[in-house]
Write a structure and sequence with these properties.
The protein is α/β, with parallel strands linked by helices and 492 residues long. It folds into two domains: 21-354, Alkaline Phosphatase, subunit A, CATH 3.40.720; 365-468, Arylsulfatase, C-terminal domain. Helix content is 25%, strand content 18%. The protein has helices at residues 6-17, 27-30, 70-77, 92-101, 105-108, 129-135, 194-208, 240-262, 297-300, 327-334, 350-354, 432-445, 451-461; strands spanning 46-52, 80-82, 85-86, 139-145, 163-167, 178-180, 183-186, 214-219, 269-275, 304-307, 316-318, 322-323, 365-368, 377-382, 385-392, 406-416, 480-482, 485-487. A ten-stranded mixed β-sheet has the order 7-6-5-4-8-1-9-10-2-11, sandwiched between helices. The chain has a four-stranded antiparallel β-sheet with strand order 13-14-15-16, covered by helices on one side. The protein has a two-stranded parallel sheet with strand order 3-12. Helix 7 (194-208) packs parallel to helix 8 (240-262). The longest helix is centred in the middle third of the chain and has 23 residues, at 240-262.
Length: 492
């Protein structure tokens, strides 16, 4: 292990522990820097966010996959690829809420997963990125999987978006309606055609918005199980249905890039591609430990690519830490938008995107558990140090086999993610001062959360002496059952 400057670490940690940073606004310094495109003038770019459901960091060719992803590889070559980019939550709804609000889901009242019968969604008093950009005169559309509440008051057109075309939750839930704005077009849509239909709607939106500032949020439904693809791609990847779905998503990204070029918008558009969290049963988390539903890096580290020609240098590799929490402050800043009134948990990472800095200082990163006891804290990270304080008695999220009780570890585990990205070697005994400082950081930071989170932390402290943390992740079962739903990798 590299020698570390403990005093420098403690000083840096102390600077971030007490709370939330106010991100700098880069809009002024960007004036005259961003190349102009057709349509609106000035430095403020169009924004497109593409987010996949359950894709792994090892599923893209530019991250080392053997899957055929030429368009995503091109996006990385023409922009930036992050190697250390995290979601703050390892399940769908909570991860998306964090991306669209810049706040932990435990602050915004977001459950880990919403179901068709769920009566609520993302708290109605929270501002989404669409709300933020609407105030800056951006036209917006949400396409694809929403999953932040399916009742009318929670749908995208009630949360700042001008238009919506997509499904309200995951493909493993039934029925799965196709919705336009607030009207149900189909009670149970054809899942095999989701990716091409989303793509067609996105192309139409870009074509119709070329004279406007616009924000497009396209949330692909795949490769979440039961995985599917259109007839054009099914059976073509030589990597099974998972590969078919990923390669169809890559095709979709290529269609959007071509549409931007035809409309002379590719130099005035910030295009982002990422995932909500790590892969489930199939897909690659690369060398990382854990998968979806766990607070190991395999569940929380996701691919992140971004292109903004003339601002983000081509082929840039960013090794600094960033997360979904940083999206709202960064985009609000570069788009000249007013920040939400509620404090943000992320920071502006434009300097990481552009390569002007190798590291952007962040507050500590908190990892809350999934499903059972979902308000419980399990890990904290600052820079490359990650400390685990609690763990489920069963490690991997498997429907029909919940993760068990979340218990406080008899002693914290400490990992250096620079030297040990797989979280294989607990070095807490070698760095007791860092363990002590991270524990103090947790105790201070948790007091900034709502009372239910503070109370959950108090209760967690009363459940000590967990069994030894399980090693690795469990294997993929042939089938699994949850309540009225049956899943075997194929649609019912």
């Amino acid at each position: 292990m590299k020698e570390v400057d403990r005093r420098a670490f403690v000083a840096a940690l102390g600077a971030t522990v007490g709370g939330l940073l106010t991100p700098p606004n880069h809009a002024a310094e960007l004036k005259g820097v961003t190349p102009g495109g057709a349509g609106h003038s000035g430095s403020h770019p169009n924004v497109i966010i593409l987010i996949c459901d359950d894709i792994g960091i090892g599923d893209l060719g530019c991250y080392g996959s053997t899957l055929n992803t030429p368009n995503l590889n091109r996006l990385a070559n023409e922009g930036v690829r992050f190697t250390r980019y995290n979601t703050p939550h390892a399940l769908c709804s909570a991860a998306r809420a964090s991306l669209l609000t810049g706040r932990y889901s435990s602050r915004t009242g977001t459950k880990p997963v919403y179901f068709p019968e769920s009566p609520d969604g993302l708290n109605l008093d929270e501002m989404t990125l669409a709300n933020v950009l609407r105030e800056a005169q951006y036209k917006s559309m949400c396409i694809g999987k929403w999953h932040l509440g399916s009742k009318l008051e929670y749908l995208p057109t009630s949360r700042g978006f001008d238009a919506y075309f997509g499904v309200p939750y995951s493909v493993d839930m039934r029925p799965l309606p196709m919705i336009q704005d607030k009207t149900v077009l189909e009670e149970n849509t054809d899942r095999s055609l989701l990716t091409p239909r989303y793509t067609e709607a996105a192309v139409q939106f870009i074509n119709s918005s070329r004279q406007d500032r616009f924000f497009l949020y396209l949330a692909y439904s795949y490769p979440h199980i039961p995985i599917d693809a259109s007839p054009r791609f099914k059976g073509k990847s030589k990597r099974g249905i998972y590969g078919d779905a990923v390669e169809e998503i890559d095709w979709s990204v290529g269609q959007l890039m071509a549409t931007l070029e035809r409309n002379h918008l590719d130099e005035n558009t910030l295009l982002i591609f990422t995932g909500d969290h790590g892969p489930w049963y199939q897909g690659s988390a690369a060398q990382l430990r854990g998968r979806k539903g766990t607070t190991y890096e395999g569940g929380c580290r996701v691919p992140f690519l971004a292109r903004w020609k003339g601002v983000i240098p081509s082929g840039h590799l960013a090794n600094g830490w960033a997360s979904h929490l940083d999206i709202v402050p960064t985009i609000a800043s570069v788009c000249g938008a007013r920040f939400p009134s509620k404090p943000l948990d992320g920071v502006d990472i434009l300097d990481l995107l552009t390569g002007r800095r190798d590291v952007v200082e962040h507050p500590i990163m908190l990892y809350f558990s999934a499903l059972a006891n979902y308000l419980d804290l399990q890990c904290v990270r600052h820079d490359n140090w990650k400390m685990r304080i609690a763990q489920f008695t069963r490690s991997t999220f498997v429907i029909g086999n919940p993760p068990g009780e979340n218990l406080l570890l008899s002693r914290p585990e400490l990992y250096n993610l620079e030297n040990d990205p797989g979280e294989n070697y607990d070095i807490a005994r070698d760095y007791p001062d860092i363990v002590s400082q991270l524990q103090r950081a947790i105790d201070l930071a948790i007091q900034t959360f709502p009372e239910n989170v503070v109370q959950a932390y108090r209760e967690l402290r009363k459940r000590p002496d967990s069994p030894t943390t399980p090693v690795g992740s469990e294997s993929r079962p042939a089938s699994y059952v949850c309540g009225p739903y049956h899943y075997d990798g194929m649609p019912n």
